TrEMBL record:
The chain crosses the membrane at residues 40-59, 80-104, 110-132, 220-250, 270-294, 353-371, 391-411, 423-443, 548-575, 587-610, 639-662. Signal peptide: none annotated. One of its GO terms (molecular function) is bile acid transmembrane transporter activity. This is Solute carrier organic anion transporter family member. One of its GO terms (biological process) is sodium-independent organic anion transport. InterPro entries: Kazal_dom, Kazal_dom_sf, MFS_dom, MFS_trans_sf, OATP. It comes from Pampusana beccarii (Western bronze ground-dove). Its main location: membrane.
Length: 710
């Protein structure tokens, strides 16, 4: 009986233990599968989002690289190009509030995919005018285009022109006038860039929150850091693509390239600007495809199921069967709306926030204007081609900016710098950066010698009215137009606006190999009694210019790095001196202010200022002012660098005010404790609290259009 009881007990225990072991095994197995599923899904999303960040950064930077190409192709001034550039920000602002609020309620991956399609449609739209506005026409003397008819550049009498040639020329002009509406096709470029801004809007807010909601908490910062790192690579490829396309003629594939009489070094050259937009559009389409196959939700990691923090989407989504919560949620929302104005009042009542916001707005005006017109400045100041300019910016400047951003974050982490220290580092970065920029005033090139514009026909520097100085005794017998721009280089090293104004009587050869003879104005400088020859194209800048360009590159790279170091400390300063429940609101206001008050106006008024330095405007085929052909190098240097420097110095004054307010609000005891690593200087958090998420901040430092403003 006793043995039987023991056997029954053993049998009972075995039956009880085995099910427990199996259920435990199943539980561990299901948890493992769920973890693998979650990790796999989030990594696929991470890869797709990284590719999208690369695509949008590439297309944005490619637009910067084609600024001068678009200006010449559509014969528009720099101020109008600035409006086109700012249209991206306008498109972004049109729907940013709707996307940020309603995006969390909907299928976020598909909204991002839709944004990619809109972004690609905008990119394709930018390239469309090339296929509808006819071939590109540049100003050239007839004999350089058609060698079968010999015409003297200096027409002693207008009747000297053969009737057939005159009729053909007039017919071409009339045909051009009929197609003159094509010059207004820059509107399509503006609308395309506007669409790009609309399509880019959901990528950053919805993509980052999706990762933050579904990634394991300790991996979220790493994942977001990977996305931002890939985004920095985009502009490098964007400018390199711009360099490649700038070497190709605009109508490649549509015309015989042997008939093109200008080279990529000519100021009238327009590269295949449209080709890069087609490539960028295809990349955007490919980047959006994976998001249509990703789920609305991913399995939530085990470590976050019991977390008190809820996902971004869970704050908005209410199941239909939970009617009892509806009235409560409505009351909460009404309460939040009622708190909007008080929150705004508190935010703008924070002196550190408002001063830092002012400093950032002014500094971004400086940086955005400088970066937008940097390719133009290099081309006009140092006589470099568009291709070489884009190559230099993509391969040298952008890596320096990326390294500066990373260095700022590492310095913050390595030395565990307090909020007051972050303010000092940000201020020091700006001060030394703009101080280095000051040295660029001495690293410019003098104006090229252009007869009638920068020098007289007798070799003296010219300072009077440029239009009246185009004519001289040596070309008084020629029927020349002051609106033409067909530069030739005389053997005396002086550029002449046209062969006619140089007084050339004959020409030999055709196309790029045309040589002009018996040019009465060319021989005026050294031997007035002897006529000389000239070749097609402007003369090169002075011998000192290549050396100055090298110095400019070195200082420019150091300046870019120095200014970028202060980016991360400044961002942390912004976050640390705002109450936790106001951080999202504060960042939203900050982003909105930067876009509206810096991203949109800066390219426009920088362009207007640059237009004031133009010496020779081009003429459209049917009359009217076209794009600028020649800038005053000295005036351009003072306007471009001076405007950048003045804005930068004003922002430094606001940064000093931020530092003064921080010092005033922090007690001496706080500073002593801060030195010992125990307390920050905002007076509300301990040093440990200040840096609990420091790794995350280093990886996710973000400001508007960081990827394309490098």
């Amino acid at each position: 009986m006793e043995i039987s009881s023991k056997e029954n007990t053993q049998f009972f225990l075995n039956n009880m233990i085995l099910p427990v072991d199996r259920s435990s095994f199943k539980s561990e197995s299901s948890a493992s599968k769920e973890k693998q599923s979650c990790c796999g899904g989030i990594k696929i999303f991470l890869g797709a989002l990284s590719f999208v960040y690369f695509a949008k950064a590439l297309s944005g930077s490619y637009l910067k690289s084609t600024i001068t190409q678009i200006e010449r192709r559509f014969d528009i001034p720099s101020s109008l190009v600035g409006v086109i550039d700012g249209s991206f920000e306008i498109g972004n602002l049109l729907i940013i509030i709707l996307v940020s609020y309603f995006g969390a309620k909907l299928h976020r991956p598909r909204i991002i995919g839709t944004g990619c399609l809109i972004m690609s449609a905008g990119t394709f739209l930018i390239a469309m005018p090339q296929f509808f506005m006819g071939r590109y026409h540049y100003e050239r003397f007839h004999s350089t285009i058609n060698s079968t008819v010999s015409i003297s550049p200096c027409l002693q009498d207008k009747n000297q022109t053969p009737i057939s040639v005159s009729e053909k020329s007039q017919a071409k002009i009339n045909a051009g006038c009929e197609k003159e509406a094509g010059s207004s096709m820059w509107i399509y470029v503006l609308l395309g860039n506007l669409l790009r801004g609309i399509g880019e809007t959901p990528i950053q807010p919805l993509g980052i929150t999706y990762i933050d909601d579904h990634a394991i908490e300790e991996n979220a910062a790493l994942y977001i850091g990977c996305v931002q790192t890939v985004a920095i690579i985009g502009p490098i490829f964007g400018f390199l693509l711009g360099s490649l396309c700038a070497k190709l003629y605009v109508d490649i594939g549509f015309v015989d390239l042997d008939s093109v009489t200008i080279t990529h070094k000519d100021v009238q050259w327009v590269g295949a600007w449209w080709l890069g937009y087609l490539i960028a559009g295809v990349i955007s389409v490919l980047a959006g495809i994976p998001f249509w196959f990703l789920p609305r939700h991913l399995p939530k990691p085990e470590s976050r199921k019991d977390s008190s923090t809820s996902s971004e989407q869970s704050k908005f989504i209410i199941e239909d069967n939970k009617d009892q919560h509806k009235s409560y949620q409505q009351q909460v929302r009404m309460a939040e709306m009622a708190k909007f104005l008080p929150s705004l009042k508190k935010l703008f009542g924070n002196p550190v926030y408002i001063l830092y916001l002012c400093a950032s707005i002014i500094q971004f005006n400086s940086l955005i204007g400088m970066v937008t017109y940097k390719p133009k400045y290099i081309e006009q100041q140092y006589g470099q081609t568009s291709s070489k300019t884009n190559f230099v910016i993509g391969l040298i400047n952008i890596p320096a900016v990326a390294f500066g951003i990373l260095s700022g974050g590492l310095i913050m982490k390595k030395f565990r710098i307090s909020v007051l220290g972050a303010a000092k580092l940000s201020l020091g970065s700006s001060f030394f950066g703009y101080l280095l920029l000051l040295s660029l005033f001495a690293m410019g090139c003098e104006n090229s010698d252009v007869a009638g514009l920068t020098v007289s026909y007798h070799g003296t520097k010219w300072t009077t009215d440029y239009q009246q100085a185009l004519f001289s005794e040596c070309n008084s017998g020629c029927a020349c137009s002051k609106n033409d721009w067909d530069p030739i280089c005389g053997e005396n090293g002086v550029t002449y606006i046209s062969a006619c104004l140089a007084g050339c009587q004959a020409s030999n050869g055709s196309g790029k190999n045309t040589v002009f003879f018996n040019c009465s104005c060319v021989g005026t400088l050294e031997s007035p009694s002897q006529s000389s020859s000239a070749v097609v194209g402007p003369c090169q800048k002075g011998n000192e210019c290549p050396k100055m360009f090298l110095y400019f590159l070195v200082i420019s790279v150091i300046t870019s790095y120095t200014l970028s170091v202060g980016g991360t400390p400044g961002y942390i300063l912004l976050l640390r001196c705002i109450k936790p429940h106001l951080k999202s609101f504060a960042l939203g206001i900050y982003t909105l202010a930067i876009r509206v008050l810096a991203g949109i106006p800066a390219p426009v008024y920088f362009g207007v200022a640059i237009d004031t330095t133009c010496l020779k405007w081009g003429s459209k085929r049917c009359g009217g002012r076209g794009a600028c052909r020649l800038y005053d190098s000295r005036a351009l240097r003072y306007v471009y660098l001076g405007l950048t420097l003045v804005l930068g110095m004003v922002s430094i004054f606001f940064s000093i005010a931020v530092l003064w307010v921080l010092r005033k609000s922090s007690s001496p005891q706080d500073e002593i404790l801060s030195a010992n690593g125990e307390r920050g200087t905002c007076g509300t958090k301990s040093r440990k609290d200040n840096f609990v998420n420091n790794d995350h901040l280093i990886q996710t430092t973000y400001w508007p259009e960081k990827e394309t403003r490098l």
